[in-house]
Design goal:
The protein is mainly beta and 91 residues long. The chain has one domain (2-90). 4% of the residues lie in helices and 38% in strands. It has one helix and seven strands, in the order E-E-E-H-E-E-E-E. The protein has one helix spanning 25-28; strands at residues 2-4, 7-11, 18-24, 41-42, 47-51, 67-73, 85-90. The strands form two sheets. The chain has a four-stranded antiparallel β-sheet with strand order 4-3-6-7. The longest helix has 4 residues, at 25-28. The termini are close together.
Length: 91
């Protein structure tokens, strides 16, 4: 993952489509959300660019020094549990 200008660049080097959700750290403590398979995703071998104004926050713009959590997951094989991973990124 890279932080460039006013966006996060997230690359998918896995063998499956990866779904993701980005949220500012303080806002993450105040919300409930559910991982799903209808939201944004990154195809295998592709890169997504998430503009700072598309990152969920408390209606405050994302600025240098803010901490953003990237949650990401893939569809599990039948019979397996969904595993959600996360990364903390300092802008």
């Amino acid at each position: 993952m890279l932080v460039e200008n006013s966006a996060l660049k997230i690359s998918n080097h896995s063998t499956q489509k990866v779904y993701y959700f980005t949220v500012e750290q303080n806002a993450a403590a105040k919300i409930n959300w559910v991982a799903g398979f209808n939201g944004p995703y990154i195809s295998v071998g592709q890169t997504a660019e998430v503009q700072f104004d598309k990152i969920y926050s408390d209606n405050q713009p994302i600025r240098k020094g803010d901490k953003v959590i990237l949650y990401y997951w893939s569809k599990p094989e039948p019979g397996n549990d969904l595993v959600i991973k996360n990364l903390l990124v300092v802008i």
